[in-house]
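Today's session is about reading a structure prediction critically. Students often jump straight to the picture, but the first step is always the sequence itself: look for stretches that repeat, for charged clusters, for runs of hydrophobic residues. Only then move on to the predicted structure, which in these notes is written as discrete structure tokens rather than atom positions. Here is the chain we will use throughout the hour.
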Amino acid sequence: MLEYASGSDCVIVGRCADHVLDNAGVKHLSIFISAPPEERIKRISNIRALTEKEAAALISKTDKQRKSYYEYYTGRNWGKPSNYDMCINSASFGIQRAVEAAASCRVNKQ
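Below is the predicted structure for this chain, in token form.
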């Protein structure tokens, strides 16, 4: 992770990358992408062919795992806006435009 982030532009999803890169002094842009629960449930229901109840349970389980992992390894609160440089609500933009917005940002590594 450090080799990629130090050497060139890249996208690292998860893995406590914000914390790892902060501790290593690597300049980066940390982005948290979220959406309201009802939007997430609809999306996962469609993608995975699940009922809304099944999708809600899957999202809840996954979020608990992500939160636990992040907080255990970083000592920070997962999803807390002050931990990130930018937070995007993908329901406002749509997934594609949220990705484009994030991709348009650059960090001056000098």
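Discussion point for the tutorial: Residues 52-74 form the longest helix (23 residues).
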